[in-house]
Amino acid sequence: MKFDVVIIGGGLAGLTAGVELCRAGVGCAAVAEGLSIHNAPMKEYVDAGGVLLSGDSVVRGEWEGNRLLRVFTRNLENTPLEAGNFIISTGKFFSLGLRSDMNGIYEPVFDCDVLYDADRENWVNPDFWGVQPFETFGVRTDAEGRVYVKGVPSVNLYAAGEILAGKVDIVKSALEVCRKLK
Amino acid sequence: MQEIEISANNFERCLKCDICTRVCPMMAANPYYPGPKQAGPDGERYRLKDPAFYDLTLKFCLNCKRCEVACPSGVKVGDIIQMARLKYGRQSHPVRDFTLANTDLVGTLATVAAPAVNAMVRTAPVKALMHSLFGVDSRRTFPEYGRKKFVDMFDPESQKGFDRYVSYFHGCYVNYNFPRLGLDLVKVINALGYGVHLLEKEKCCGVAKISNGFGASARHQAEINASSIRKAVAVGEVVLSTSSTCVFTMRDEYEHLLGMDMSDVRGSLMLATKWLYSMMESGKVRPVFRKDYHRKVVYHTPCHMNKLGWSVFSTGLLRMIPGIELIVPDQRCCGIAGTFGFKKENYDYSQKIGSGLFDILKSCNADVVATDCETCKWQIEMSAGLEVMNPVSILAEALDIS
Amino acid sequence: MTAEEYDVIIIGGGITGLGTARDCALRGLRTVLIEKFDLTNGATGRNHGLLHSGARYAVTDRESARECIRENMILRRIASNCVEPAGGLFITLPEDDCSYQDTFIRSCRNAGIDARPISPAEALRMEPSLNPALTGAVKVPDASVDPFRLASANALDTVLHGAEILTYRNVISFIMEGGRVLGVRTVDTRSGEKAELRARVTVNAAGIWGDGIARMAGAEISMLPSKGSLLVFGHRVANMVVNRCRKPANADILVPGDVVSVIGTTSTKVPFSECDDIRVTADEVSLLLEEGCRLVPSLAQTRILRAYAGVRPLVTSGDDGSGRGVSRGIVLLDHEKRDGISGFISISGGKLTTYRLMGEYASDLVCEKLGIDAKCLTAKLPLPGSEGGMDSDDYSISLKVARGRHGTRVSKMDFADKSEVLCECEHVTRAEIAYAVKYLDVHNLVDLRRRTRVGMGTCQGSFCTAKVAAALAQELGCPEKAPEFVRQYLAERWKGMAPVCWGESLREAEFMRKKYAE
User: Fold this and answer.
1) C492: nearest CA partner in chain A
2) Residue B161: left (phi > 0), alpha (psi -120 to 50), or beta?
3) Distance, in angstroms, between A69 CA and closest chain C CA?
């Protein structure tokens, strides 16, 4: 199935971008594993003509060098989603955008480079009410918002929302990516 | 040395965000139902300690899997509940449940005297008897039985001479109630240049047996189906179904609830609309449509279709038909949940759950409702008074066979 | 300033103090127990939950082992609702000395412990989660005990027999007159109100803090704080207690506790200053996991809910030399004979399994000093909730779960009006919370957790804290305190989540923060 943009992760960031893009005439498909705990604009997105694949997740992508060509999802099996540009907005740990084990933190779909503290004892602030280091971990992006994979920035895979490193304004980051894709 | 956490059905991944409880159709209708989170991952920890902690109200779970679709953690909430029901559940009306679940037996008997059976189950005295003795709600209308079984109407001779073939799992509904759908599928497949083979041996997919607690019997049927499907796949044929629930049951429930390994054939077993869409979208087949075909269609997503994530294929297929105006409203559960809605202790909950959907469908003022599940079809026909067709039948109507 | 007169004052609201208080109260003594925080805040609330068969000590300390098995059998009877007779296995792994098993079995039998060797195949049948590489196994009558329930039941019985329990009461100083302890000066740590309590005998049952208490009276006990860390797993991985058949070492016991599994423990000397704020280190977490996986391999894939640590009160000064016949494990000190300070005794050492016996020894000495001849009844009379009866299949889940925790006391819970389930992981209803407030002396959410398992489930309070805090505040009649309860409780839960914050626990942590801190 061909689209202009495929959005991987249908939470607040992904669907905010989706609404903005669809309204600008950019055809989108969004893949969402579960509902978001934020108020993601699902109705606005679908009303704007966006295709929403709920309860699904991207399992792998096919690349040509640093260009992502298509992605395959768990439910659609052999039917790939093809697009010129992709947005990854799968969130942080809660929404499974980042995974962690005793040894490290990684991004499970494309193995994007993740910025985090190598010492696990620094992941958590013992004061519950203080800023938590793990809340600032995320994927590495270039000035254009494109993610790095194995040290090289991708050509057409952008990141939006909580999957980003640092302090993130979810909606703002989504709209910034849209500016590059409209 | 701590690997990624692995637990049965991912029950330990549950973070108690409660999103599943918010989307559960039964929660809103039934104050006794504890909700998917409590019935599923919460209850599982206690059941692991002692089966005495099994909550009988789990029988109200519709098995719609909306909890799983909504879960951000990938917990198989619905499967956890169904497994618990299979392991610890008790049947309140064993004779009724056995009858409702044994579609092959009842279907075979009923088609022998279909006109009489159809007439009888419409009469008040028979309904009252079924209600009081049997526990089948008298307000429920029964689907009609066909005079001839689909397998007897299907002509293998007519399918000779094609270059390529698909296999068709017809299921109980097509075989005993509505052979017309099966014939529509054959018509459509043939029009695209493929022949249709039936499976060597087919039994009911077993979904009703599973939900009514007859796990061992369901497994027995499932093995027969799996074996037949394997034989078809071995000769390079995909196996198509026109029922979203049948295909979901065979692809997923056989593995998750009956412990079978379907991995070698799962990818080749699919809903007809998925295959048709893929073939048409890729240009591998180019059907010709009637120029005078106009229909306003409203598509209803069955719950199992929602879980499969394949409504894009059915709606995509319908959109390829020129002359179709397609409306796709927000998806909602129709409430029947297979044999669930036939039982008198459940009927009111079913109708309450589906009431929102019925209003929406009526307000669309469409010519026909399109949906891939036969029990949704019965429920919408009965409760909304609308005509319901499978997308394959709509496609068959729209094709220019000349 | 008020001065209350009692027969005996007991300092310390752990299981030792509570066991002693119950014993004294049952003997008809006017008893008061004071505790500086909440009951079970010390080692009692931070241990394995293991009701030892004594097998672990059989080889090196036969007396301790004998004591354990006797008390084990007694507690199964009088505390039946707190004890789960899960049974235990001592397994030998390929890297262990296989000759140890024979020594082990012989020593157990000599101590009166029923130890039966079984084949690895049979062990795996009994407990499928075991390391399939095991080369030998011995079955022993280990059991699991819920220390909170046990403590609650003892406290309840004490109060039901006319004694008083005062929590959040700290000892400022002893009232002394010429080498005689007459009582204690206390302060209520919440209100700041001071009060004097007087009694003819004062018992120091303050666990590791007993060192400081004794010093306040002018006696030196010489304790060594020994920290032990443990991990809680998300569900009940093994149904039996699994031990390693070797010389006791770190992390070689996995205990089923209600709906979780607990692996422990370690042994590190810590300074006294750390005793009020102990934290589990990353090294300890790694060690516990590594050793635990040798017993039950699936622990490597099981969600870890939290890590916690307690401090054992190890007493180095041993017996008081009065020829009392007290075992090497249990330490009973008569400070009159030992230090010339009359009206003051200390009871320490021992373990959770032998708490009742410790209470008996202490109460015997108290009665001796009071010149009262009263027999110990604690081994005969069942604890509240464990009186038996009330078995039925027809309970709702809420009632079944509450009955599991409180036994026959569920009859005091109002399920008709207060059936709402507030903590869903552990199925705690408003009825149970109301019961705890009325009968079990609850002042905040942390106290409530100890009485009911609120927040001890998978979500560690993420889901329920706000709701439970509101309900508790309402039941206590102070609705404005709900936010304070939330803050205090989440901080306490976070402490245990931080050392194991990866995988699902990290996800839960993110969720908890999103829900409460944003």
Assistant:
1) A128
2) left
3) 31
Give chain B positions within 8 Å (CB) of C462: 15-16
Amino acid at residue number B156: P
- What percentage of chain C reaches a pLDDT higher than 70? 96
Question: Using CB atoms, which chains have 3+ pairs under 8 A with A?
Answer: B, C
Q: Give the three-state DSSP class for C113.
A: coil
CA distance B77 to B88: 17
Nearest to A10 by CA among A88, A78, A68: A88
Give the pLDDT confidence score for residue B273 in this predicted structure. Answer: 98
Phi/psi at C415 (nearest 5 deg)? -80, -20
Q: Which amino acid is at B394?
A: I
Helix axes B391-398, B179-191, angle to 10 degrees: 50
Does the distance separating the beta carbons of A1 and B312 come in below 8 Å? Answer: yes
pLDDT-derived band at C392 (thresholds 50, 70, 90) equals: low
State the pLDDT at residue C319: 47
**pLDDT at residue C313 tops 80:** yes
**Helices marked H in C1-61 — which ranges?**
15-26, 55-58
Q: Are B373 and B172 in contact (CB under 8 A)?
A: no
**Contact (CB<8Å) A94/C514:** yes
Nearest Cβ partner for C507 among A94, A123, A128:
A94
ipTM (interface pTM): 0.96
User: What would the pLDDT profile of A4-40 be if each residue is shown by its tens digit?
Assistant: 999 999 999 999 999 999 999 999 999 999 999 888 9
Q: What is the pLDDT of residue B2?
A: 55
CA separation for the pair C86, B159 (Å, rounded): 65
Residues C507/C462, Cβ–Cβ less than 8 Å: no
Q: Counting beta carbons within 10 angstroms of the beta carbon of residue C115, is it exposed (0 to 12), middle (13 to 18) or buried (19 or more)?
A: buried
Reading the block at residue A131, the tokens are 């800023």
Nearest-CA distance from B279 to chain A in Å?
11
Identity of the residue numbered B380 = I
Asked whether the beta carbons of residue A34 and residue B19 sit closer than 8 angstroms, the reply is: yes
pLDDT of C226 over the 60 cut = yes
The closest alpha carbon to C227, from C287, C140, C187, C172, belongs to C287
Collapsing DSSP states into helix, strand and coil, what is residue A103?
coil
Query: Which member of B1, B42, B55 has the closest CB to residue C424?
Result: B42
- Taking an 8 Å cut-off on Cβ atoms, the answer to whether A76 and B309 are in contact is yes
Residue A37: its chain B contacts at CB < 8 A? 17, 19, 72
Q: Residue B229 has which token pair?
A: 């499907």
Q: ∠ CA C259-C261-C265 to the nearest 5 degrees? A: 145
Are B72 and A55 in contact (CB < 8 Å)?
Answer: no
pLDDT at A182 over 90: no
Q: Which amino acid is at B139?
A: R
Closest chain A residue by Cα to residue B315: A51
C272: CB partners within 8 A, 6+ apart: C208, C211, C212, C225
Quick one: average pLDDT of A47-75?
96
Q: Which H or E run includes C62?
A: helix C62-78
CA distance A65 to chain C (A): 31
DSSP for B343-359 reads BTTTHHHHHHHHHHHHH
CA distance A179 to A175: 6
Is residue B75 within 8 Å of B68, Cβ to Cβ?
yes
User: Of the candidates A94, A126, A127, which has its C-beta nearest C511's C-beta?
Assistant: A94
Residues B153, B157: Cα–Cα separation, whole Å = 12
Note the pTM of the prediction, 2 decimals: 0.92
Measured CB to CB, residues of chain A less than 8 Å from chain B are 1, 33-37, 43, 51, 53-56, 73-79, 94-96, 99, 101-102
- Nearest by CB to residue A51, choosing from B281, B306, B312, is B312
Q: Please spell the DSSP secondary structure of C313-366, one letter per residue.
A: EEESS---SS-----SSEEEEEHHHHHS-BTEEEEEES-GGGHHHHHHHHHHHH
